Amino acid sequence: MKETIAAISTALGVGAISIIRISGPESIEKVNTIFKGKDLNTAESHTINYGYIIDKNSEVIDEVLISIMKAPKTFTTEDIVEINCHGGIATTKKVLELVLSTGIKLAEEGEFTKRAFLNGRIDLLKAESIMDLINSKSENSRKQAIEILNGSLSRKISSLRFQILEKIITVIEVNIDYPEYDDIEIMTKEKVKNELISIKKQLEKIIQESENGKILKNGINTVIIGRPNVGKSSILNRLLDEEKAIVTDIEGTTRDIVEGNITISGVELNIFDTAGIRKTQDIVEQIGVNKSFEYIDKADLIISVFNNNEELNAEDLEILDKIKEKNKIIVINKADLKQKINLDNLGNNIVFTDTISDNGIEQLKERIVSMFNLDKLEKSDYSYLNNARQISLAKEAYEIIIGVENQIDSEIPLDMLEIDIKNAWEVLGKIIGETYEEELLDQLFKQFCLGK
Q: Could you give the angle at which helices 414-432 and 388-407 cross, rounded to 10 degrees?
């Protein structure tokens, strides 16, 4: 990490300003060679300096403001220079080209944040939350990212690791290494068991609340299904309050997935209208039907639509069988027509809508809020684990703790049980990056944009 790196940190396009970020030991010295204005080598830290970017022929490329931030009080803990130039693709690229011509290396994806992590400025949870903050699409996901960035979740995980280390591992090892001392705490299996119960409860709470975190971050993938011409596209349009999907009386109008997004109680609903499910000889329509079944498997919520004025047929029954284990709301559409459908065995989570008004749409939204407790999520703690990596590691540590707890009353000695306890401590360390694999870091930071 001794190389000085640079990248464009703002979206590339037409705008008022663009920012080119440079970080590393030679950042100030190198940028000074293409800058006409105050000698940047003598500039105070955390100052903004006016001048011009010039090429080797002293031609002015752009009028700029340059921020100087000296180590260690910077994002990467290295010297950082940020060139604020005029927005625009040609200008921004030309300034970056001149920066790189000084011998500065083009940064890789996420390399600034990776340096911040490796230099101890942030832990791995905070690093991931930066990307979550950039990608947040709702107020709740923004709040969650800020909460984690502020360190609340890191403190929870660190506290658990401290409890394991200080209350169990250290005491066991002192007992083993210094048995002759009378004034040390004697660690017994009963004491270990009590500590493990406390740790397990805390982990259990974190894991349970993580499901809320995933909802806040990723939203709810909601799939509307049903056979052709039951009104799926009409329901999509009414939920979105726009004519997103084409609506006709012709069966098979929707042949591909139509997507839309709304926010309910601060949580994004990612809605997918699917092709009508039926047996068909039309190859294109059949591809759409197959896609419908694929989306059912990936959905967090199924909105299954049936006609009020028709009895359930074989295709309806196939749909009901396919979604029996899923979170679902049954929508009985065309409630303004004479009822012929038998509601037996459809469950209690039923909403009625009609073909001539928005009746039932607000009730449908209320059911979604109730099903996922969205009204309570807004008022709760935002420091959740919120991605698969974090949650899987927490579950792994939890299973290890349970395994040790189950063996505590056996003949296995404490020093053998300590091996598994230490393993749980190390797994929790992977969540915050106290322990990590270089390969994992490379993969994780490649998800970031170039200038972050």
A: 170
